[in-house]
Amino acid sequence: MSFGRVAFIFSMIIVAGTAFLVWSGYDFLTQEFPDVSVLRNQYPVVEYHSTDKTSQIKLQPAPPTGWVGLESVSKTAVGAIIVSEDWAFFQHKGYDPNQIREAIKDDWELGKLHRGASTITQQVVKNVFLDNDKNLWRKAKELVLAVRLENSVPKKKILETYLNVAEWGDGIYGINAASQHYFKKAPSELTAREGAFLAMLLPSPKRYNQSFKSRQMSEYANKTVKSILTKMESAKYITEEQLKEDLNARYWFENEGVPGSTTITEEVGTSAPAETATEEIQTQKKPPFPPPVPPEDAVDPHPETPGAPVSL
Known about the structure:
Layout: H1 3-32, E1 43-49, E2 54-60, H2 75-85, H3 97-110, H4 120-129, H5 136-152, H6 155-165, E3 167-169, E4 172-173, H7 175-183, H8 192-201, H9 205-208, H10 210-214, H11 219-234, H12 240-247, H13 252-255, H14 274-282
Antiparallel strand pairs: 1-2, 3-4
Helix pairs in contact: 2-8, 2-11, 4-5, 4-6, 8-11, 11-12, 12-14
């Protein structure tokens, strides 16, 4: 075989090998780092399989049945979820350095990955594009994709997507289904206290909705709802008077009555008057950063129209 033929065959092998590596790299990046900008014009649909209690998400060009726009959710309910899940949502660019530092500190002390520190943006990425594995590679992908999502999709759409794909119980996905299930009303009618209850469920809905199933608020549920309401007052989602009123109210399922029967004269589970309850909550540790920007003052860093305010 001549030298020319050997050189030609060798060159073809190099070209084929290079093409394979490029294709493999592209396939890897596509699989591991999907195009999150599709959420600008696409809507995720949660398909729940009751037989094995699993779910999967598919994307479609039109809003699915049950989808609610951000403007169709009460501002106080949105506020409850923001102060509970992602205090700095309107300030960060996909990740929260303060929470990451706290998570690293806690995980180091525990010697394992325990605290997620995920922002709402990161949770959207995880819910729609990634799996639930707790490992550093998944967290790294989540962080990269969250930054990409913030750079390509408006804050309003990110928050709206989160509210529509979040899980609020076994087979209960989206705030529309959650509002109907727990309070028999539309998301636009949710009160601050009801929003705080839904926010309380989010970290682990199948675990924390036992208060609803047992028709009695647990000590954890009561404490968490009070903390969320107090943060809402700090962030100006509710007034001080509304805070006092909500701290002295019960949910309809506690009263074993009909939805809307919530007001009582004493704090749930204690004989303390409203003022005592308010003072107790206000002594709790505040987050180590400024309150969230009030909805009417928030500016989307990537709006549909440059400089347009975020409309809640």
